[in-house]
Amino acid sequence: MDLRLIIGRLLLAIGLLLVAATKLAPQTVKTQLYGLNLDFAWGVLLIASGALFLLTARKK
Amino acid sequence: MPHIELHWIDYAILITYFAFVLGIGFALRRSMNSSEEYLMSGRSIPAWIAGLAFLSANLGAQEVMGMAASGAKYGIATSHFYWMGAVPAMVFVGVFMMPFYYGSRARSVPEYLKLRFDEKTRAFNAITFAGMTVMSSGISLYAMGLLLSSLLGWNFDASIAMAAVIVLLYILLGGLTSAIYNEVLQFFLICAGFLPLVLVGLENVGGWGQLMVRLEEVARSKGYVSGAYTQAWAQMSSPQANPMGIEWFGMAMGLGFVLSFGYWCTDFLVVQRAMAADSMLAARKTPLIAAIPKMLFPGLVILPGMIAMAISSTPDGLFRLPVKPDGSLNYDMTIPLMLQAFFPSGMLGLGLTALMASFMSGMAGNVTAFNTVWTYDIYQAYLKPNGTDAHYLRVGRMTTVFGILASWAAAYAAMKFNNIMDLLQLVFAFVNAPLFATFLLGMFWARTTGHGAFWGLLSGTVGAALHHGLSLPAGAVSGLKGGWMGVVTHYPSEMAQNFWTAIWAFSVCFAVTVAISVVTRPKAEEELKGLVYAYTRMPEEPASLPWHQRPAALGGVILVAVGLLNVLFW
């Protein structure tokens, strides 16, 4: 079992949930990081990291 | 502190993580066909996975929350627990000690002690270690139940039952491999959950420069010089000059040498991860790979505490650290407070999932170490020596169930005795510090005998108890904190007392082991091959291997890097 597949899928799943969470709350100071929506920005970053793990796992 | 309200999205993240955790256990269950596969991962784990598991086994939530609390209480000097109290020892175990652990084909640290010394030394270590792991696992469970009930308003009993059942399932199904895989997931979750907390916190406080300015004000308001919270070494000239209450020698010798090397080089909980690696080279690289993120972790777990202190000390700060009934600040609530203050729904779920993953991995690490030591070093060694491998596999699984149940019971014991965590820390100092002297002599001085090792270990433990019984930290009353035999000396802080207890335990064990070894008969040279430095050929790497694959070169680069960090934050 290639652990990179599991890590990639987990990060991807959490990233998608965070992007979905963007719709949950109105824009407040609490949801901002340097002007970006925190859930959205971090969600996209996790999706990208997850995809990277999946790509490296498949190369093998 | 009011309860945090979670949305469905937070629960969805938590449930997704649990599904992955259990999925790993189910996926691995068919490959668990022998005791070696179940208890030692069949020695098949690649170096990068073993390395991250080596790091994560020590990254329980108590550690994460405790380091943030220390960051708030002591400032940047807390990073000594990483830069001096971990990384050099990790390099040492990878470069010098792993060839003996892995090369001897011992299945555990107590078994190495049997091969190097004798049965009684193994029994002493196996029994004390098994007791410590169950207690430690139970305290992890208790701390999680306490956090979830106070933070989220969840039922305490239901919280610990849920965590215990999940950990039981994934270890029962997938053994050590399942625990190791989940530790790696935990590593990524901690990075994903805590890095944004640091970024948001820094933005709130006005950036790094403003953080330093505010912490300098905090230092002056408490009667220290400006750099007491922002300089790692500059204020270590005397115990009174820094909030930790320790001077550079106690720090370097107590934490940097005895406690650090005692833990990272001899504690089977972490060493087991390297022993599960798929080759000698991978086993040697395991602690070195772990050392790289380890030296950067203060930025992830200590910095939030420093940010919390800066925010909490300004009149218009977003939150204040709660006050305990005795009037002191409750630093343990640093991370929960920051999660509540800075994370919206979604990120909150991720942060809590990271914390829960740490609690469960901390517990799983202890249970997997316990079932290996119990099965091989107690059951097979003394109760049923000639069983089949299938029998030991069954015993390993049954021990997992027993370990979880015992941890569950220990969690309730911890609830009844509110000082049990302090007691456990003390036991670590009593057991691990002398054990490092035993290993140092055993591996590098062939003349060391089994009698010397056993009586040295016992004397070291007694030496630690005597020192503890005759000393007392400032502000404490005689009892569990020390001074129960009469107070001969006072320390400015509990930490200083712990460091000096460890120094005494190590020194007494070292001296007694040497004294008894010179008057007793050592093992023959033939019996010590592969166990002692003088009679073991150190593994040679092929000339074509790049420098970063060579343990000695990689270790050297890591030491230079950690040295630079010390200079940078001097």
Q: How is this structure best summarized?
A:
Chain A is mostly helical.
Q: Structural class of the helices, strands and pairings of chain A?
A: mainly alpha
Overall mean pLDDT of chain B stands at 90
Query: In whole angstroms, how far apart are the ends of chain B?
Result: 36 Å
Q: Could you name the ranges of chain A where pLDDT drops below 50 across 5 or more consecutive residues?
A: none
Oligomeric state of shown chains: heterodimer
What is the count of helical runs of chain A? 2
Strand percentage of chain A: 5-15%
Total helices of chain B: the number is 22
Q: Note the main sheet of chain A.
A: 2 strands, antiparallel
Number of strands of chain B: 2
- Biggest chain contact: A-B, 27 and 31 residues
- How many distinct beta strands of chain A? 2
Q: Which radius of gyration of chain B do the C-alpha atoms yield? A: 23 Å
Q: What is the strand arrangement across the widest sheet of chain A?
A: 1-2
Helix proportion range of chain A: 55-70%
Describe the strand arrangement of the main beta sheet of chain B, using strand numbers.
Answer: 1-2
- Rough shape of chain B? globular
What are the secondary-structure elements of chain B, in order, as H or E? Answer: HHHHHHHHHHHHHHHHHHHHEEHH
Structural class of chain B: mainly alpha
Q: What gap, in angstroms, lies between the N and C termini of chain A?
A: 12 Å
